[in-house]
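Good morning,

Attaching, inline, the backbone tokens for the sequence recovery test we're adding to the shared suite. The designed sequence is right after.
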């Protein structure tokens, strides 16, 4: 999703359908990495695991609420809202996977938890890194994790999220990061469910 937001910067976004402009952005992106000798592999969510469905439904409802705000703004002001209400066009992820294949790129549609499949692939193939914007990748002891949000395409520079430095500052070891993710809450274990455990742990620590 973070990559889609990075790619889709079309000005007339509320109408959708800026396909040619979007394809040009994808083509430029692919060509820049290819020219630098970097082979890209793309992963798209294929399934929503049963234990993640409540969180998935919650997010879909939140998106529906945001879309309602966009329609209200257009109806009231007769113009497209600012980027603070930006919402990706429906179906963009599906269309993007086909677009990338048409550009000769390797594309996977996941059959398990997407983050897990990406981390596993990166580890098995000794990948240069994973490019995205999801803190879940920090808990996997896999390839280096880079920020797509901070990516500067013209210079191919970005920020590295260093899990070892994170562990150092938190006085943890890498193998304890999954436990930390559970205590903080995630897509499977809600933050609310872990609230009392966190409070007790913090009280003991103090």
């Amino acid at each position: 999703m973070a990559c889609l937001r990075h790619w889709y910067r079309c000005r007339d976004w509320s109408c959708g359908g800026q396909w040619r402009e979007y394809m040009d952005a994808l083509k430029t992106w692919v060509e820049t990495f290819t020219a630098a000798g970097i082979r890209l592999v793309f992963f798209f969510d294929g399934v929503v695991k049963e234990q993640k469905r409540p969180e998935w439904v919650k997010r879909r409802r939140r998106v529906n609420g945001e879309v309602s705000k966009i329609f209200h703004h257009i109806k009231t002001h007769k113009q497209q809202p600012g980027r603070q209400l930006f919402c990706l066009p429906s179906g963009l992820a599906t269309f993007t996977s086909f677009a990338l294949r048409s550009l000769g790129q390797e594309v996977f549609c996941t059959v398990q938890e997407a983050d897990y499949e990406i981390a596993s692939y990166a580890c098995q193939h000794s990948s240069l890194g994973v490019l995205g914007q999801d803190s879940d990748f920090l808990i996997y002891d896999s390839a280096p994790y880079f920020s797509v949000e901070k990516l500067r395409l013209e210079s191919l520079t970005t920020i590295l999220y260093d899990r070892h430095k994170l562990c150092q500052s938190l006085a943890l070891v890498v193998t304890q990061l999954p436990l930390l993710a559970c205590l903080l809450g995630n897509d499977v274990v809600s933050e609310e469910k872990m609230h009392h455990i966190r409070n007790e742990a913090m009280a003991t620590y103090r």
